[in-house]
Design a protein that fits this description.
Strand 9 and strand 10 form a beta hairpin. The strands form 3 sheets. Strands 7, 11, 12, 13, 14, 15, 16, 17 and 18 form a 9-stranded mixed sheet that branches. The chain has a 5-stranded mixed barrel with strand order 2-3-4-6-5. It contains 13 helices and 18 strands. The chain has 2 domains: about 100 residues, Nucleic acid-binding proteins (OB fold (Dihydrolipoamide Acetyltransferase, E2P)); about 300 residues, 2-Layer Sandwich (BirA Bifunctional Protein, domain 2). Helix content is about 30%, strand content about 30%. With about 425 residues, the protein is of the alpha+beta class. Helix 4 crosses helix 6 and helix 4 packs across helix 13. The structure holds 4-amino-1,4-dioxobutan-2-aminium adenosine-5'-monophosphate and magnesium ion (MG). The site of magnesium ion (MG) has 3 residues, from strand 17.
Length: about 425
């Protein structure tokens, strides 16, 4: 019996025969040779079939196989520095599970709309699979980062009775007997309850925003990791966010060089990402943007052009803190040094990746918070449980949310976040 091996593990089988189970990525023939590029999900390898070394029927069959035919092959693993992945497979046998004809995605340029409607198949392409492997590595990096620092994972609900990030981007759903529920925009409020119970928690899951924005940075369903820390200040969670981003970049560089190369990512831009990151106040950012000439108006939120300009200027994630409270959410605490400012931070990524993190110190005073809820035109009743956190043992606390797809898109050097989640949900797109 020949040992079964993932292509990823070929280094452990050099000179030996292995069985590989996968799909035909592409094929070319030259005289008495067939070159079958085979992928198995872990990697891709060139299989070489020589006429005379396999039964004639097998050689003929291999010469007609269509793209994405499913197959099981055996062969000898040979080191070959020029081959993709560094190995070649000298084929000895071929078993075809399905000979595919007319696979919809050929190896040529297709438009984004076509590819998105074929997303269930597009995921098989080399670059898309590389993005998915890097995404999975980033998720592990995030979990390890918090698990190693004494945080407890806390899963927040998806159905919620109230808004977290304002009412304008809520997806409403019917929830029995004419009651309304909303898909969560952020697990933060539940994270705060968790922090009061467990000290340090992180919520990590999908969130939903009914944003009618058709930009390359917006999804209607995306993943966010949200740490929340009892007794922490804004500055402390800024340190936490900085450490998280530096750790993610370091882990991907350490483990996923092959996938970054597949994506033709300029890794020198990632290698220079090291803490400490530049930290500037909103006022300083406004002044800098004036000099950079983006047309920024003091008092407004940063636009895409402002974010790109800041990212380009520093070539590093930049932490913009202490914002005019009018542009920030109801739960942010005011800066005791200046009541006009909220103790919030946005981390803006380099290379046009935009806002990667939004966070803040939370308002911890019951009456002040009740006033903010009213001021933002929100009903108090659904927030009653949240207000309990300020009634029973309130303490200073802070946290942030990091958008997973924006982080993946920056690290992978992808133009659009839609390639950074397996099945993107966007304005006008919910298929497949
Ligand atoms: O800045 P946001 O809205 O912050 C919150 O939701 C806070 N409650 C987080 C917290 O303090 N616990 O969102 C956080 C991050 C953004 O910085 C961005 O990276 C990402 O989530 N994000 C989106 N990603 C993709 N598509 C969208 N529509 C996004 N909206 C926000
Ligand atoms: Mg934000």
């Amino acid at each position: 019996m020949t040992a079964q091996s993932s292509i990823r593990d070929f280094k452990d089988h050099v000179g030996k025969d292995v069985e590989v189970r996968g799909w035909l990525y592409s094929r070319r023939s030259k005289g008495k040779l067939h070159f079958l590029l085979i992928r198995d999900g872990s990697g891709i390898v060139q299989g070489v079939m020589v006429k005379g070394e396999v039964p004639d029927a097998t050689f003929d069959e291999a010469g007609h196989l269509g793209q994405e035919s499913s197959l099981i092959v055996t062969g000898t693993v040979r080191e070959d520095a020029r081959a993709p992945g560094g190995f070649e497979l000298g084929l000895k046998s071929l078993k075809v599970l399905q000979d595919v004809k007319d696979y919809p995605i050929a190896h040529q340029e297709h438009g984004p709309d076509f590819l998105l409607s074929q997303r269930h198949l597009w995921l098989r392409s080399r670059k898309q699979a590389a993005v998915m492997r890097i995404r999975a590595r980033i998720v592990k990096s995030i979990r390890d980062y918090f698990d190693n620092r004494g945080f407890t994972l806390l899963d927040a609900p998806i159905f919620t009775p109230n808004a977290c990030e304002g009412t304008s981007t809520l997806f409403e759903v019917n929830y029995f007997d004419d009651a309304k529920a909303y898909l969560t925009q952020s697990g933060q409020l539940y994270g705060e309850a968790g922090a009061m119970a467990l000290g340090k928690v992180y919520v990590f899951g999908p969130v939903f925003r009914a944003e009618k924005s058709k930009t390359r940075r917006h999804l209607t369903e995306f993943w966010m990791v949200e740490p929340e820390v009892a007794f922490a200040t804004l500055d402390e969670v800024m340190d936490l966010a900085e450490g998280l981003i530096a750790t993610i970049v370091g882990d991907v560089l350490a483990d996923k060089r092959g996938d970054l190369a597949e994506l033709e990512r300029d890794v020198s831009k990632l290698e220079r990402i090291k803490a400490p990151f530049p930290r500037i106040t909103y006022d300083e950012a406004a002044e800098l943007l004036g000099k950079l000439g983006t047309g920024f108006v003091y008092g407004s939120d940063l636009g895409a052009a402002d974010e790109t300009a800041l990212g380009d200027h520093f070539g590093m994630p930049v932490m913009v803190h202490r914002w005019p409270h009018e542009v920030k959410a109801f739960y942010m605490k005011r800066d005791p040094a200046n009541e006009k400012l909220a103790l919030g931070v946005d981390v803006i990524g380099p290379e046009g990746s935009g806002e990667l993190v939004g966070g803040s110190q939370r308002e911890d005073d019951l009456e002040v918070l009740q006033g903010r809820i009213k001021h933002h035109g929100l009903p108090e009743e659904p927030f009653n449980w949240y207000l309990d956190l300020r009634r029973y043992g309130t303490v200073p606390h802070a946290g942030f949310g990091l958008g997973l797809e924006r982080t993946v898109s920056w690290i992978c050097g992808r133009e659009h976040v839609r390639e950074c989640i397996p099945f993107p949900r966007m304005l006008y797109r919910i298929y497949p």
